[in-house]
Amino acid sequence: MNLEGFFLTNKDALHDASELWGSFKDEVLYKNRFIISHEVLDYITNLSENHKTIIESERVLYRARLFDGDVSAVRHLNDLAKNDENNSGNSSFTLEHAFFLQHYNLKRDPGFWGYNKQESFIPLKNDFINDGRANPAFIKYLYTAEDAYTAMVEVRPYLKSVVSIAEIRVNSPITVADFSYESLKDLQSVGEILMYLIMNDFSKPANSDKKSYIPTQYVAEFIKTLGLDGIRFNSSLHGQGRNITIFDYKDCEPVSSSLYEIDDICFEAKNIAPKGLPDLLHDKLLMARQKEVDNILKRN
Question: How far is CA 156 from CA 64, 66, 241, 261, 265, in A?
Fold first, then answer.
């Protein structure tokens, strides 16, 4: 089901859910900030109790950051490690590595090719924490994705930018409110559509208007008071991707990081108005679709 069909099929429930969410945002923005009583919180309580996911121990999640370090130095270090591996069967540090690290002032932990272990995690000091979609300023949350690709696109990289992607291991099981959904057709009740609207706001890109963060921050803090460790929701940048924001991250640990350079960015846009114009597709997508058509014709 596309978005247009979803709106037409569920217009009454969508109207009610939109009214509720709009009323809640107005309440926390302009009337009461810290202690409120609102019907939306009843829905969130019910949804959180009935939609939970356990992130099992040893599960690996991913956290990405745009890399602003010396990429050429890291490439050279990687070449040195590869030479060692080819010559001795392992990638242990040599004296040449040590001099190189000292020269470039690289604080590299074994297994971390992008940011080091600490830089791949959360800043140590709360004073460095800015407002986020889920966290208020000075309160640390861990933002992760379930796969490396989703983590990468969530930082909105540009062509030729370099992204450091860290693997974050969950060392003990954590329980999160699962507000994700597989298809729009699964959302029919007022509560389910309300969940969609809230998570849609969670997925919006960061901007300078910190006021827009307040409603989602309140929701996250409220879910935390229910005894849950985080929130799982759909990525707005990767259709199959899922993000997990973790409140209680003490049992999570960065175990490695890798660097990726952005070679290409593919978009697909559907014509809305005026009708009759072609959809806009990246050349790679056009070629892939043509290949699918050719394969179908060959089979027939």
Answer: 10, 9, 14, 13, 10
Q: How many domains would you assign to the chain?
A: 3
Per-residue pLDDT averaged across 26-55, rounded? Answer: 92
What number is the average pLDDT over the span 254-272? 94
Q: What is the domain extent for residue 22? A: 3-66+118-261
pLDDT band at 74 (very low <50, low <70, confident <90, very high): confident
18 and 153 inside one domain = yes
Please compute, for residue 103, the number of CA atoms within 13 A of its CA located in the half-sphere on the CB side: 10
Cβ count within 10 A of residue 180: 20
**Helix (H) / strand (E) containing 290:** helix 283-299
> pLDDT tens, 122-169?
998 999 899 999 999 999 999 999 999 999 999 999 999 999 999 999
Q: Rounded CA gap, 148 and 221, in Å?
A: 27
Same domain, residue pair 122 and 230: yes
Cβ pair 68, 164 in contact under 8 A: no
Nearest Cα to 47, choosing from 238, 201, 236, 187? 187
- What is the percent of the chain where pLDDT is above 70? 86
Kindly give, in sequence order, each residue whose CB lies less than 8 Å from that of residue 144, ignoring residues fewer than 6 positions away: 61, 62, 63, 151, 168, 243, 244, 245, 246
Q: Which residues of 10-49 are buried (b: 16+ CB within 10 A; e: fewer)?
A: beebbebbeebbeebbebbeeeeeeeeebebbebbeebbe
Do 200 and 54 fall within a single domain?
yes
Phi/psi at 281 (nearest 5 deg)?
-130, 145
